[in-house]
Every structure is written in structure tokens, then in C-alpha cells.
Specification:
Elements lengths: L7 E12 L2 E12 L3 E5 L6 H8 L7 E6 L2 E3 L4 H7 L1 E4 L11 H7 L7 H15 L14 H13 L5 E5 L7 H16 L3 E5 L3 H7 L2 E6 L2 E6 L6 H9 L17 E10 L9 E9 L2 E6 L6 H9 L7 E5 L2 E2 L5 H6 L2 E4 L14 H7 L15 H14 L16 H13 L5 E5 L7 H16 L3 E5 L3 H7 L2 E6 L2 E2 L3 E2 L5 H8 L9
Parallel strand pairs: 3-8, 3-9, 6-7, 7-8, 13-18, 13-19, 16-17, 17-18
Antiparallel strand pairs: 1-2, 1-4, 4-5, 9-10, 11-12, 11-14, 14-15, 19-20, 19-21
Helix pairs in contact: 7-8, 11-12, 12-13, 13-14
Length: 508
């Protein structure tokens, strides 16, 4: 049995941080012991990200102090933090897209390091931790999951005493996550302390030695995740009971809504995934789930589904009409809503307000009068309803999308699309980075529009999510989609093996 040192490696004492109109942290005190894996939990907007940014030198506290290895610790910037022995894996990627994987890694290191030696070390770390990636690949050509791997490798390369990890498994499969857990446990056994942020409560129970829970910027308490159930921990975190949504009711009279066929689609870049033999149909009042390991063609498929890329080799039919050549705006005008995986820059424009982000995705000029002028009253009412219904923690509709936490931006983006009452909703990673209550609310909302007649294509790497609310399920592996099967008939062990690329067979 693992023994955690009784001595603290890191302490925060009375940390307080306020922003205009927002109390982010109020008198936060916690202690991370030597060799401990310490969970930091809280709903979206509870203050977790602000707190760890203070720990990492990205923000300065208004009050309070920190102690690291028995000495006062007050980093002015991340470089100070890293030199003191604190590393961090961010939820939002901090990578430069025009540069290669290796070049991005080298940027975080001191000048004069041996490029060849670093490359060898990175390759060794990648293999050891099950986070393989092509060092010569450009970041811009990588999927979200592959970018996450680079972030993890870059942090581990620093050999930190305290490693802060913000939602590191949000885009990893169960197999990749298990590999990461093994790595973290080894690091912990060797003396590295880990501060671990996650909304996946079962992995907290499996991995962490203790958990500090924040709510509305304050510490609620410290708990042993080994002696309290994930559900109980989640309810403490959000301050109310959690419910599990049911999958949509099966409608025997449902009609075919959307079909997609592609024999072979070559990628636009040398690092992209070729799609092969993709053939599926989505019916009214149905959720079709598409799972798979990150980087197996999810992003390429999403671009084709929503019209960002249009190829002569594909055929897409919607309500009996060929829409293969239509651009995203025209598809939106037909009643197709979509939420891509990448929130900032793709699903939302960071420097635009939530109000403006609602406007630019309006498919049918609902917020314009007959002369073409914007009806701000209707636009404000709509944006406010999204914020309220999906519990988006923000200062209001004038706040920029980039000012929101990752989870709150996710809630806004998905909520914005759902509130359009789409005929078809295409969504990639709908609950990525959101807390347990918000994830449940998002899934319930997806089920609600499905029961009202909409079709849904749900692309997700969260196996539990797919099993919970989809009617049928299929899996992408090396660009090929398995035959969809009834979710209720799917065998979990077989599914997991397919997602991890361990077997080559369909879920039948």
C-alpha cells in the first residue's frame, strides 16, 4: 500500500483573488503533501483555474501566501514556477500551431539545450507513458487529443516536484487514461506530488489520495475519495443531488433524416487521417454515437459533416435533398446546428462578446428586422436565456467568450446550439471539461431535443457518455467507421478494446 508523507510539499494560506464583479477565490488554504496525488474539485466557475494559475505564477493573489518546500513561494511568472519545481498541464492548449511538436517542446526549455538529446528523451517519455506522437508533426495538424499528449509530455520533461494537471484526461480514451494513471502513480511513488483537477469523479476515486472541494470560490472541505462514493463527492461539489438522464425514447415511426457516404477521402495535410468506407444514417428522434481514440478521423469527419470541407467523393443527404456542396451557413439555414470540439477560435470567437457570438451563428436572421437591422432586444433575450438555462457563470452577455472558464464556454457553445431547436444537432465532445451537474444538464438537453423529434450525431471519447444516452453506437478506427449497433446490445469490454485499437472487429 502506498504511503503518503505527512510533510507538506506545498501550502496555500488564505489565498484571495477578485476580479471586477467576480469573487474567484476567498481565503483558500490547502496542503499538498510529499508524494501525494491531491484532487482539486469544484463545479465550473468554482475558482479552480484561477487558483492554480496563482500557484503557477500566471496570476498574483490579492491576499494570502504560499509555501513550497518549507520556504515562502511567490512566483512572478511561470518561468519562476518551473525553476522552483512546479509544472503544469493546461486544459486549454498553450501550443503554437505553425511549429512542430519538438519545436513546441524546445520553447519551454532553456536555450542551448541539445535538440537531439531532447528528442530522444521525449521519444522515451512518449513510449513509457503511452503518449506516442510524431515529433515532426505540426501542431496545427494534430487532433485535440494529440495536442493534449504534447502538453503532458512537455510538463513531464521538466521533472517537477509538484505537477499541476488541469483536466488531463478530458480527451483521452480509457486505455490512454489508464496509462497516464500508471505514470502518475509511478511519479508519486518516486516523490513527485500531483495536484489533479478533473470532473471525472470515478478517476478521482481510483487515482487520488485526498480531495479538496471548492464551491463559489471557497473551500467546502477535504475528503478521502476512497471512503466516499463518486456520486456523493459530486453532490458535495455542486451542492445538490445528481440525476442520470435516460436515453431518448425509441420512436417506431421515426424517419430517415440524414445520411452520409464516403468511400475514400484523403486528408488535406500529410498528418491528417484518410477516411474510408464511411456509411451511416441518422433518424429522427435518435442519437447516433460515434466513439474512438483521438486522432482516428473525428476532426476530419466533423469538418465534412458541417460543411467546412466539401469533397466530390462524399454524398450527404438531409431530408431527401443532396446537401453535399452546401457551406456551413447554408446547412445552418436548413436547421442543422453544430458544436465543434475546439471551443475558442472554432466554436466561439474569443474577443467577441457572448452576444456577438450568438449573432454570428444565427442561421435564419432571427435577430434582424425587415430592413436588416439587428434587433438587440431579441438577441439579448436569447443570449441571456442560454446563459441562465445552462448555468453559464459569467458577468453577463457583454462578457467576451475568452473571459469564460473552459467549462463555462463549453456550456454556452452547446447551449447556444441546442436553443436553436435544430432539426439535426452535430456535436463533438459535448461535455468536455464541464462539471458533473453541467454534464448531466447538457445530456438531458440533448435527450430533450431528441425526444422532440431532432436527430443527433454525438462524437465523443467518453465511453460512459456514449453508453448513457445514445440509441446506436459506432466507432472510428484509423479512419474507418464500424457498423452502428444498438447501444443496449453493445458489450462494454468489446467496445473498450475497439476504442483502444486492440481488436479489429465490429461491435456485433
Amino acid at each position: 500500500m502506498k504511503t503518503v508523507s505527512k510533510y507538506s510539499l506545498f501550502q496555500s494560506i488564505g489565498i484571495t483573488k477578485n476580479f471586477p464583479g467576480v469573487r474567484a477565490n476567498e481565503n483558500i488554504s490547502l496542503s499538498v503533501k510529499e508524494s501525494q496525488i491531491h484532487a482539486l474539485l469544484g463545479e465550473n466557475g468554482a475558482g479552480k483555474s484561477t487558483l492554480v494559475k496563482i500557484f503557477y505564477g500566471l496570476l498574483q493573489p490579492d491576499k494570502g501566501e504560499m509555501i513550497l518546500k518549507g520556504s515562502k513561494y511567490s512566483p512572478k511568472n511561470p518561468k519562476n514556477a518551473r525553476s522552483s519545481g512546479i509544472g503544469m498541464v493546461f486544459q486549454h492548449f498553450s501550443l503554437f500551431e505553425p511549429l512542430t511538436v519538438l519545436e513546441n517542446i524546445l520553447l519551454g526549455l532553456d536555450q542551448g539545450v541539445n535538440k537531439h538529446e531532447i528528442g530522444l528523451k521525449v521519444s522515451e517519455l512518449s513510449k513509457t507513458y503511452g503518449l506516442e506522437t510524431n515529433l515532426s508533426s505540426f501542431i496545427g495538424d494534430l487532433s485535440a487529443g494529440e495536442r493534449q499528449r504534447v502538453e503532458i509530455i512537455r510538463a513531464l520533461l521538466q521533472e517537477p516536484n509538484l505537477l499541476i494537471m488541469d483536466e488531463p484526461t478530458s480527451v483521452l480514451t480509457p486505455f490512454e487514461a489508464n496509462n497516464l494513471f500508471s505514470t502518475l502513480k509511478k511519479l508519486s511513488d518516486d516523490g513527485t506530488s500531483i495536484l489533479y483537477i478533473s470532473h471525472k469523479l470515478q478517476e478521482i476515486a481510483d487515482l487520488c489520495d485526498t480531495a479538496t472541494v471548492l464551491r463559489k470560490g471557497e473551500v467546502i472541505g477535504e475528503y478521502d475519495p476512497k471512503t466516499i462514493s463518486p456520486k456523493e463527492l459530486g453532490e458535495i461539489m455542486v451542492g445538490q443531488p445528481l440525476t442520470t438522464p435516460n436515453r431518448p425514447k425509441k420512436n417506431k415511426k421515426q424517419k430517415a433524416l440524414f445520411s452520409f457516404k464516403a468511400k475514400k477521402v484523403e486528408p488535406d495535410t500529410q498528418f491528417g487521417m484518410t477516411l474510408k468506407d464511411i456509411d451511416f444514417q441518422v433518424n429522427e428522434s435518435e442519437i447516433l454515437g460515434i466513439g474512438g481514440v483521438a486522432g482516428n478521423g473525428q476532426e476530419e469527419l466533423m469538418q465534412l459533416l458541417i460543411g467546412e470541407k466539401r469533397k466530390d467523393s462524399i454524398f450527404i443527404e438531409f431530408r431527401g435533398d443532396d446537401i453535399s456542396k452546401l457551406n456551413p451557413r447554408k446547412r445552418r439555414g436548413l436547421g442543422i446546428a453544430f458544436a465543434p470540439e475546439e471551443r475558442l477560435g472554432h466554436a466561439a470567437v474569443a474577443n467577441l462578446s457572448l452576444l456577438e457570438n450568438s449573432l454570428i451563428t444565427d442561421p435564419k436572421d432571427r435577430f434582424s428586422d425587415y430592413l436588416g437591422f439587428i434587433n438587440f432586444e431579441n438577441l439579448q433575450s436569447y443570449t441571456t436565456s442560454v446563459i441562465e438555462k445552462f448555468n453559464v457563470k459569467t458577468t453577463g452577455f457583454k462578457a467576451s467568450a475568452g473571459s469564460l472558464s473552459g467549462g463555462n464556454l463549453q456550456k454556452f457553445v452547446v447551449g447556444r446550439e441546442i436553443e436553436q431547436s435544430p432539426v439535426l444537432f452535430i456535436v463533438n465532445q459535448p461535455t468536455w471539461g464541464v462539471d458533473a451537474l453541467s454534464a448531466s444538464n447538457i445530456r438531458e438537453s440533448i435527450v430533450e431535443i431528441t425526444n422532440a423529434g431532432a436527430g443527433v450525431i454525438l462524437i465523443s471519447q467518453d465511453l460512459d457518455e456514449l453508453l448513457e444516452i445514445t440509441n446506436r453506437i459506432a466507432f472510428l478506427s484509423e479512419g474507418t467507421l464500424s457498423k452502428p449497433v444498438e447501444t443496449s446490445n453493445a458489450v462494454v469490454s468489446d467496445i473498450g478494446a475497439i476504442m483502444g485499437g486492440l481488436v479489429e472487429k465490429e461491435t456485433e
